[in-house]
Design goal:
- The chain is α/β, with parallel strands linked by helices.
- It folds into two domains: 198 residues, Rossmann fold (3-Layer(aba) Sandwich), CATH 3.40.50.2000; 179 residues, Glycogen Phosphorylase B (Rossmann fold), CATH 3.40.50.
- It has 15 helices and 13 strands.
- Helix 1 packs across helix 15 and helix 8 packs across helix 13.
Length: 385
């Protein structure tokens, strides 16, 4: 098969919202397939997903009605009609959603969710539908990873965890980090001394993430209350969608810690296009997750020129490296110490913000797209050899 004639198919049947759609849209937007010997890319997806994707002469967007439906409908499409479509349209299939039960070969998949593979994180959900769903995902994704021609990870940490959980029995793999949108990139700002802040104009910490059991917003809120009680002029803004049981717990905790709503606010979900304004208005960023394949939100905060206090768990140290202050996300006292350290030292704040911004400059969607297409082309060529 001539290298310049490669046809890549993308099964986006399980890419429906959030980071998965953002990743696919950004990669396709920055892609230069001709540089990798790829003549055409075809994407099969639901209508809402296709509406988020860019238009190119080499990109064919195909709507399938079953993909607008429930999980059983999407699985039915994948196991029946999809295989013939793939055989007619592509030399290699890319399945970024991580689960594939069809028979087409060769295919490359992607690990974008570590929750199914982290037993102690799944246990946080108790006996619930969410925990059962994650356990099922662990089975389906492990099977997919073992059958795949190639496997893409977002971090070395994620590759290590998956290898530990299912055995190092998957095929060739690559670590390809996400990028960050240019609109988030801002230079680090000059930092003011703590004396410049007051209870009327507090130092505002921002935490952007889904409210969920492994994100530890309650512990961050407790840390803010500890600082406030110690006389620090500090406030916390929480932004993101929510897992309902975790949001109920958070609201209860906030009402106990700050009954008048003076210094801890949950602002709900905002559009991705508006987030850069929230980063711009904040004085510092806190990220307290204990389970991440990568930490896309952390990368956006790094690019935004903010001083960062961060969880020392999961993939975060691999992304932030030496560009912030770390804490254990389940220890409010330790979180408070990390926040206080940054607040009390404006020179340290400015230094870390500059380091984080420089570190974020090494991540781009152009680089992600080039590495992704290069790996797909390599797997296609090796399979057809």
């Amino acid at each position: 098969m001539p290298r310049s004639q490669l046809r890549i198919g993308i099964d986006a049947s399980n890419i429906r919202a959030g980071g998965g759609v953002t990743h696919l849209a950004e990669v396709l937007g920055a892609a230069r397939p001709n540089e990798h010997g790829i003549a055409e890319i075809t994407v099969w997806a639901s209508r809402p997903t296709l509406e988020r994707l860019p238009q190119h002469c080499w990109l064919r967007l195909v709507h399938e009605a079953l993909l607008d439906g429930s999980l059983p409908a999407r699985m039915l499409w994948q196991q029946t009609r999809a295989t013939q479509l793939f055989r007619e349209s592509c030399d290699l299939l890319f399945v970024p959603g991580g689960s594939y039960a069809g028979t087409f070969r060769p295919f490359v998949t992607m690990s974008q969710n570590l929750l199914p593979f982290e037993t102690h994180e799944r246990r946080r959900y108790g006996y619930s539908f969410t925990r059962a769903r994650l356990s099922m995902l662990r089975i389906t994704q492990a099977r997919t990873f073992k059958r795949a021609t190639g496997l893409i990870f977002l971090s070395e940490f994620a590759r290590k965890i998956v290898a530990q959980k299912i055995g190092n029995c998957f095929a060739k793999s690559a670590v390809i980090a996400h990028g960050v949108a240019e609109r988030f990139r801002q230079p680090a700002r000059p930092q003011k001394p703590l004396s410049a802040y007051s209870n009327e104009r507090p130092f505002r910490w921002l935490y952007v993430s889904i409210v969920d059991v492994y994100k530890h917003q309650c512990e961050v809120a407790e840390a803010i209350a500890l600082l406030r009680n110690a006389g620090f002029p500090v406030a916390l803004d929480l932004i993101g969608p929510a897992y309902a049981p975790s949001l109920a717990r958070l609201r209860t905790r906030i009402s106990h810690l700050d009954s008048n709503g003076r210094f801890i606010q949950y602002l709900g979900q905002v559009s991705h296009s508006q987030l850069q304004r929230n980063y711009r208005d904040a004085d510092g960023f806190v990220f307290a997750s204990s389970c991440e394949t990568f930490g896309q939100i952390l990368l956006e905060a790094m690019a935004s020129g903010l001083p960062i206090a961060c969880s020392n768990q999961s993939a975060m140290p691999e992304i932030l490296v030496d560009s912030g202050v770390y804490f254990h996300p389940e220890r409010p006292g330790e979180i408070a110490e990390a926040l206080a350290k940054l607040m009390e030292q404006p020179d340290l704040r400015e230094s870390y913000a500059q380091l984080a911004g420089a570190r974020a400059n090494s991540f781009s969607w152009e680089k992600c797209a080039a590495e992704t297409l290069s790996f797909l082309a390599q797997m296609a060529q090796e399979s057809h050899s």
